[in-house]
Amino acid sequence: xxxAFFGVGAVCSVISTLLCEQSSKNLKNCVEFxxxxxxxxxxxxxxxKNSELLENSKFLEVSSFEEIFHHPIKxxxxxxxxxxxxxxxxxxxxxxxxxxxxxxxxxxxxLASDIYKDEVIxxxxxxxxxxxxxxxxxxxxxxxxxxxxxxITNFLIGERINSLQNLPYEVKITxxxxxxxxxxxxxxxxxxWSPKVAIxxxxxxxxxxxxxxxxxxxxxxxxKFYKFPYFRNVVEVYPVFQEELISLKQSFxxxxxxxxxxxxxxxELMKNLYQLNLFSNKYCYExxxxxxxxxxxxxxxxxxxxxxxxIEDYIKKKTIKYAExxxxxxxxxxxxxxxxxxxxxxxxxIGLSFxxxxxxxxxxxxxxxxxxxxxxxxxxxxxxYSYMKKELLNGVILSENLPxxxxxxxxxxxxxxxxxxxxxxxxxxx
Length: 430
What we know:
The protein is α/β, with parallel strands linked by helices. The protein folds into 2 domains: 2-144, Rossmann fold; 152-369 and 423-429, Dihydrodipicolinate Reductase, domain 2, CATH 3.30.360. It has 17 helices and 18 strands. The protein has helices at residues 10-26, 40-44, 51-54, 66-70, 76-79, 94-103, 118-123, 132-137, 152-164, 195-203, 243-251, 265-275, 294-301, 308-316, 372-388, 402-406, 408-420; strands at residues 2-6, 32-37, 57-61, 84-87, 107-110, 141-144, 170-186, 207-210, 213-216, 224-227, 234-239, 258-263, 283-286, 291-293, 320-336, 343-354, 395-398, 424-429. Strand 4 (84-87), helix 6 and strand 5 (107-110) form a beta-alpha-beta unit. The longest helix is centred in the N-terminal third of the chain and has 17 residues, at 10-26. The chain starts with a strand and ends with a strand. This is Saccharopine dehydrogenase-like protein.
């Protein structure tokens, strides 16, 4: 198995470590990696606990990815014969890396999409889906929006909806709400994801679907309180607009009501910044050469993401006291039993959580954040089993459609593998 990553960061280091472990266990050989980066020295810092992995790795340092996008033949020797190209950099590179994958007959994976565009919102289609036929023609797969949410969450939702459709009586899904928790308690202000990306996402007016109609509301409005399984406190969650909604609406158009909410103390900080009008794009300084907005100032002064070594040190010194990521989908059902005229209503909750953060100190994943770890584990497991079943896959694939393709036995293996990496799988009928 040969894998090329475009960009190296916290999630990339987790995915590559997991792929190496899975390959050694199942294929009895190690993965060969190529890391395409702008700064090799900086990229290597993410593998300070994984020196063995680098023995089978190469680095290609370029001043910008555009060099490769515009002159692919120049890099033929370095890029040919790789099984998968993975965009672990910004979603703005998705299409260019997909075209490279087609050029070099490689499968493709990305972790997120650039969705805050009118054409995406109006069509409810991801940009990557424009290349659906090209990947099918070459019998290659392109897995998009892979990770923990979207990714494993959509996978679990897809598996459950698929099983509901096979029941001997009529089941209607009246509503689906996905609730995410991002909670970190620490002595210092620590971001588990890029603050710049988060500010752009949370400043975007949330969209949800009510009776198949998209509804747009003010950021951080229409909140509700939600009790996450295993988490000790009730959390206030807020509607947001992310890839999950586009993906699920596209795959399951029969679900009329869809909403995504996020809560946790990281969101509370962002809410305070928003309510202080610090997300504003209004210029506070302007001359003929430069324009500076309040938004741009905040993005530059908030603390940047820390290196894995610093994160590890924070955990050792208990600067980070507790952290948890959780994603729970509540599926509202209306069941028509053949022997009864009355319809039965119920809620099925499925999802996952990760809270055993300090235990990563004893593993090669030490230094990951509480979000990058489950994201990388989720993506890595889906990538590995997609590669193992690549003869069943072609075209651009959303993760909620993988369970139907894989079948029950592989789906069970994936869930068991997630559990073996300290990720709790949750399933309850209310």
